[in-house]
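INFO worker-7 received task bundle
INFO bundle size: 2
INFO processing item 0
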Amino acid sequence: METMKTIMEWNGAVNSFVWGAPVLILLVGTGVWLTLLLGVPQLRYFFASWAEVFSFRKKSAHDKSITPFAAMATAMAATVGTGNIAGVATALHLAGPGALVWMLISAFFGMCTKFSEVVLAVHFRRKDAHGDWRGGTMYILEHGLGDRGGAWKFLGKLLAVIFALFAFLASFGIGASTQANSAAEALSMGWGIDHLYSGIVIAALVGLVIIGGLKSLSTVTTYLVPFMAIFYIVGAVIVLAGYSGQIAKVFAEALHLAFHNPETIPAGLAGWGVKEAIQRGIARGVFSNEAGMGSAPMVHATANVDHPVQQGFYGIFEVFMDTIVICTMTSLVILTTGTLTGSPSLTGAQLTLQAFENAMGPVGKYVLSFGLLCFAFSTILGWYWYAETAATYLFGVWFKPVMKVIWIVLILFGAAGAQFVGAQGNEFLNSLWDISDTLNGLMALPNLVGLLLLSFTLRGIVRDYDVKHKRGEL
C-alpha cells in the first residue's frame, strides 16, 4: 500500500505537469505554428475535407490497406468516447461555461495539428512482417528524424521507443479497463444489468471483432461510429430544440467567462475563473480529440490514398466532428437546461445524465445510457489498434495474439473486477485511470518534438499536393 501510495504521488506530480500550463501551451503553440506555416489548412481545406470524407473512396484490392473513411471511423471510434459525455461535464463543473470557448479555440488549432500528424504518418509508414501497414509517431520519429543520419538516428529511435511504450501502457486503462467499466455502468444505469454479465458480453463481442484484425475492426467501426454519432447528436438536438431561446444567452455567457472572472461567486460557481477555464477547456479539448497526442495517426496510416494530404483531410474532419460538434452539443445541453448551476454537486456522466433527464424525462436516461455504451465500446475497439501497433513496434508481430488475450482480460477486469475484490478493485481502477491519463499526456511530448522538427518536411509535402492538385494530377 505504501508503494502504491508513493507511485500515485509521483503520478500526481507528473500529471499536473503534462496536463498543466507548460505542455498545454506547447500543444496549442504547435498548432498555431503549423497553422501559420501551412497556410491555415483547417480553413483552406475545410470544404475539401468534407468532399473527401463523403466521397467514400474505394481501396485497392491488391494490398492490405483499408479505405480512408474506414481509417477515420476507426480513429473516431477511439476519440469519440466517454470524454465527450463525462469529460466535458467535468470541465464545465470545475471551470464553468468559459471552458467551452477555450475547448473550441484549442479544437480550431487541433484541426491543423491532427492534419499534420496524419500527413506525416502516411508519408513515413512501413509494412510489418505480416504485410500490414504500420505508421504513427514512432515511425515518423524513427524514419523522419533517423533518415538524417548521425545523432538524429539515435534520437529518433529513442523518442520512437519512448512514445510506443507510453502508448502501449496507456492503452491498458484508457482503452480497455476504464472504458469497459463505463460500458458496464451504462448498462447498469439504464437497464439494471449486472456488471459481470456486461463484462462477459462486451469481452466476447470485442474478441469477435479483434480476432479478424484491422479489416474486421474497421468494418465494425465504419457502421458503428456514424450511427452512434448521429444518435447522440439527434438526442442533443431534440433537447436543444426545447431550449433554443437559451442558446445565444449561453454562448454570450461562455464568451464573457472565458476572458473575465465571475463578478459574483455563489456556491455553484466556486473555483471558476479565467485561468481555470483556459486550462480545463484546452485540456478537455485535447483529451477528447487527441490532436497532438499521436494516437490517431496509427490507424490513419493504414489507409489507401494517392497522397498523404488526402488522408490529412480526414484528420481535419475528425477533430471538427469530435469537439466542435459533439463536445459542444454536450456543453449546450448541460448549460441551456440550467443543470450546471441547478445541480452544483454533480459532475461527470451524472451531470450530463441529469441534464438529459431534466429535458426529456425518464427517456433521457436511456438516451444517454445507450450513447455512453456505444462511445465506450467504440473506444475499446479503436484503442485496441493503437495498443497492437505500439506492441508490434516494441516486441514484433509475434506479440499480436498475446495482445488480444491481454485486451480481453483487461475488459473483464474493468467491467466486473470490482465486484470480486470490493473497494480495492475500484481503487485500483481509479489508480489505473490516473496513471493511464498521465501516460496519455506524456505521449504528446515526443510527438510534438517530431512535428516541430519535421515541420518544414511537412510543408514540402503539402506544397507537393497543392502543385499536383492544381495540375489535375490528384
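INFO item 0 finished
INFO processing item 1
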Amino acid sequence: MIPLRRRGARGTAVAQGKRMSAEDSERRTSSVPAAAPSSSRSTHREIEIYAAESLARFGAPGTLCVEGGELIWYAPQGVLREPLGDLDQSWSALPEEGRRRRAGELVRRLMSRRSQLPTLRPRRRSGGWVGAVVLLGAVALGAAYAARPDAPEPEVSRRAATPGGHRSGVVEGTADLPGERERAERAARVCAGARARVLRGGTIGPAETEGWIVDLLLLSGDTSASLHDHPALGSFVSPVETGRLASFVWQEEPELAKLSGPGTGVELTPELVEGPSGRRATGLRLTFRGQLVDPYFRPEERVRYFHVANALSDRLGATHAGLVARCDHSATHHVGSWFRGPSPADAATALVYLVGLYAEPPHLASAFLRAGTAGDPHAPGGPGPSSLDRAYAFAAIREATRPLDQAHLAALLGNSGGMITSSAAGSVITFPFTDANRASRASREIARAVHVGAD
C-alpha cells in the first residue's frame, strides 16, 4: 500500500498541487539557514514515514515520498502533490505528537483532492485456459521426473539464514533434524529477552526478530459463513495444504509476495467469539512467519502490513480487526500497531480485546474474565484465553466501550501516542513505530476509563 518510493521515481499522470512562488522560495532561502544535506534527507525520510502511517489509517493504496519541497502521493490512478510549506524547516523542533499531527494534515489535504484522480477500471484476466494447460503439463512433467529411479530425494525444509527467517516453532519436516529443538529453544529465549525490552518501552529492530511472529486477527458478526472459507481469501494466500504454510501471494504488495524461504508463509486458524445476544462472531487469525516477519519491525515497511490488514478486512467483511506481534512460544500479544472497527467505539473494542485480554496479566478486571479450560491460559506456552474467556470478554468490552466517541477516544489515546481516524469505511487506531509498548498502555487506560479494567 504505502511502500516508500525511491527518489527520482516519476508517475505517469500528475495532478498539480499548489506550488511555492519563486519569490517565496527565494525569501525562505535567504531567511532560513540551509540544512546539511544528510540532515535534510533524514527529515524527509521521517516525514515520509509519519505521512505513510496517516495514509494507512485511510486505507488508501499508493506510494509516498518527499521531493522538491512537496509530499507526493503516487496512487494507482495517478499522482497528487502537496507542498510541505515550512514543515521540513520546523520538523526537528516539533514534539512527536506535533510531527504526527502536521504529517496527518498534509495527508488529509491530499485525500481531500482524491476525486481529481481518474477511476480505476477493473483488470481483465487473460490466458485462463492456456495457463491451466501449462500448469497441468508442468504437474505431469514433475510427476514423471519424481518417478524416475535416479531422481533426488526432496530437500528437507531448513531454517533461513537471515534473522527474519527464524521461527521458534519447528518448521514442517524439520522436527527430527539434529539441533532443531535447540534452535527453537534459543529463539524462544531471544524473543523473551526482546519482549522484556518492549515492556520497558524499547523498540525491536529487524535484526532482533528471531522467534517472533505477526498475527492479523479478523472477526465478523456474520454467522452464515466462516472467514476461513471466504472465497476472497484466495487473492491473498495460496491454497493451504495439510500441515503446511500458505504462501502470501497478494500482488498489490509485491515486496511481501516475493519473500520466500523455509518456514516463510502464512498459517490460517479459525477464530470463534460469541458476541452479544448470543450471536457468534466467526473470525480468522493469519499468522505470518519467517521472512514475512521482518517488514513488521521496519518503520518504513510496517505500513505494508497496514495495507494488507485494511484490504483483508474489507474483502472478507470483518467487523473488528487487529495487527499484533508476539513470541512464537507465547499466547501473549506483545506489539500492537493497528486496530479497526465500524466506529470509534468498535475500534476501541478491537484494541482492548486483542491486546488487553491477551496481555500478561490481562488488562480486564477479574469480574469480566472466566477461567480457562486448560489451566492458566496466560502461562508461557499456554493456549491463551479459552473460547469461553473470549466470548465473555468480547461482549463485556463491546458493551463498555459503546459510549466512546471520537473525541473522547482521541483524548484517551493521546497519552500513548495512538491516533484514531474515521471514514466511511470505519475507524482505525494506529500507534507509532517507536516504543513498542504503546498499544498495551492504551489498552489498559481505555479499559480503566470504561470501568472494565484491572486495578
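INFO item 1 finished
INFO post-check item 1: DSSP finds twelve helices and eleven strands in the chain.
INFO post-check item 1: Residues 217 and 285 are 4 Å apart (CA to CA).
INFO worker-7 idle
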